[in-house]
TrEMBL record:
Keyword match Calcium: no
Keyword Transferase on entry: yes
One cellular component term from this protein's GO annotations in UniProt: cytoplasm
EC number(s) stated in the UniProt entry for this protein: 2.5.1.18
GO MF, any single term: glutathione transferase activity
Protein name: Putative glutathione S-transferase
Length: 226
């Protein structure tokens, strides 16, 4: 197999999701980071113009879910991201979609609404680049994240309501994990990787919500395995 290359933005939970998928399946890969002003090159990678983008087997695949499905189709003899059982697969896909389409916006909100989390996010997003790019990145990143959460709707909610709803989500995840230690079935799936990748980004940058997430014993044990 030719070299597998993950084109990524270091701070993206979706790029981390793909990296964890490749690790789960035992596929060696290299990463190309588009941190700092290098992000201007991302639109050239695919028609969609976003990362993650994976170069594999002579193909270029964009979108974390499309990559996940491709990996199971191309490498069925390696650990499967999606269960074979149709019902379990449906549950897994529901968790993955919920994570990508809803949970993500809580992660974005906590980054942009907390000065410490934003500073940490800016430092990560400019990692490996000249220091002056941090000055450039902060207003750009803040504006982009604010626009995302406002367009989606979370950014127009009251702070107390957002925090209360996120806490309810954590309680639901904790309850489910208490059954087998995984979100669906008896072993790790794309559901765990997708949801965990979102929560781990909150843990990485938020001094407020990181400890809160880790205060749930089942969640703490679970994310340590991701």
């Amino acid at each position: 197999m030719s070299t597998v290359v993950l084109h990524q933005w270091e701070i993206s939970p979706f790029c981390k999701k793909v990296a964890r998928m490749l690790q789960f399946k035992g596929i060696a890969f290299e990463t190309v980071n588009y941190n700092g002003v290098l992000g201007a090159k991302v639109p050239r990678l695919s028609k969609v113009g976003k990362v993650p983008v994976l170069d594999i087997n002579g193909q270029r695949i964009q979108d974390s879910t499309k990559i996940a499905r491709y990996l199971d189709e191309a490498y069925p003899d390696l650990p499967l991201l999606y269960p074979v059982d149709p019902l379990q697969k449906a549950y897994v896909e529901l968790w993955e979609d919920w994570s990508d389409e809803l949970l993500y916006f809580y992660e974005v909100y906590f980054r942009v609404s907390d000065a410490d989390a934003l500073n940490r996010a800016v430092a990560i997003s400019a990692e490996g680049r000249p220091k002056h790019e941090i000055v450039l990145m902060k207003p750009l990143l803040k504006a982009a994240l604010n626009l995302q959460v406002k367009m989606q709707g979370t950014g127009r909610m009251a702070k107390a309501d957002i925090e209360a709803e996120f806490t309810r989500h954590l309680e639901r995840i904790e309850l489910v994990l208490g059954q087998t230690g995984w979100l669906v079935g008896e072993s790790k799936t794309i559901a765990d990787i997708a949801v965990g990748s979102q929560l781990l980004e909150v843990v990485r940058t938020s001094k407020i919500w990181g400890p809160k997430i880790n205060s749930y014993p089942h969640i703490q044990h679970w994310i340590q395995q991701l």
